[in-house]
Specification:
By secondary structure, the chain is α/β, with parallel strands linked by helices. Helix content is about 45%, strand content about 15%.
Length: about 250
């Protein structure tokens, strides 16, 4: 049976590696991107070169109407959705809470909390047996920041990921009898571009010696955990928050 997966923020980092690995495991993949069409198309081209099936779809997840359009395009161009990876997210400049602006907090929560909720809503409407679907899997990409707190740097980011964990736990119970599994992966320090976007391009270099393994994780290592949760090998896992943090 054809398996259709949507990966939000699939043009780089963890999202891109998840799309590539999932395609190699037989998923037809919708690679969502907000702005970087070239990067998203490169991911799709790599999948096509390996005889897989994929499509890049632009949608800014800060806009609820674009979220709806994204899912409609997946329906029309790829078929019935059976998997969602809520990967898209942002981080901001390193600041203390008493320096945050309302604009910063609104942007953070809209992107890291509201958008995944709305994507989960659209996925459930398509997967749930209560809506005539055949079931499916949702994997949210959280962070160990949810339990570490991000003090003096990213408390807002940490709080947004804690909210994502709450979504995972609550939704998993809500839809368990509708044949939908909902899980999270919780990465530690991972070598991706997100650190530079938050104003700390040397964060990996600076913190790696302090980590239990002496190194940061890779996007591929996180993608492997995500794809395991997507697979039938994880058929009795739901409401699970899987740390991929190197003992951090």
């Amino acid at each position: 049976m054809k398996k259709v997966l949507l990966v939000t923020g699939g043009s780089r980092g963890i999202g891109a590696q998840t799309a590539l690995l999932a395609a190699a495991q037989g998923w037809t993949v919708a690679v969502n991107y907000a702005h970087n069409e070239r990067a998203a198309q490169e991911v799709v081209n790599q999948i096509l070169a390996q005889k897989g099936h994929a499509l890049a779809i632009q949608a800014d997840l800060m806009d609820p109407l674009q979220i709806e359009s994204l899912f409609e395009r997946v329906d029309q161009e790829l078929g019935t959705l059976s998997g969602l990876v809520n990967n898209a997210g942002i981080v901001d400049q390193s600041q203390r809470v008493d320096e945050y602006s309302h604009e910063r907090l609104t942007r953070m929560m809209n992107m890291n909390v509201v958008a995944p909720f709305l994507c989960a809503k659209e996925a459930v409407k398509r997967m749930s047996q209560a809506h005539g679907g055949k079931g499916g899997v949702i994997v949210n990409v959280s962070s160990v920041a949810a339990r570490l707190g991000g003090a003096s740097q990213y408390v807002d980011y940490a709080a947004s990921k804690a909210a994502l964990d709450a979504l995972t736990i609550g939704l998993s119970k809500e839809v368990a009898r509708e044949n939908i599994r909902v899980n999270s992966v919780s990465p530690g320090l991972i070598d991706t571009e997100i650190h530079a976007s938050g104003g700390l391009p040397n964060r990996i270099r600076d913190l790696s010696p302090q980590l239990p393994f002496g190194r940061a994780g890779t996007a591929t290592e996180v993608a492997q955990a995500i794809c395991w949760l997507l697979s039938e090998s994880a058929s009795y896992c739901s409401g699970t928050i899987l740390d991929v943090s190197g003992a951090r």
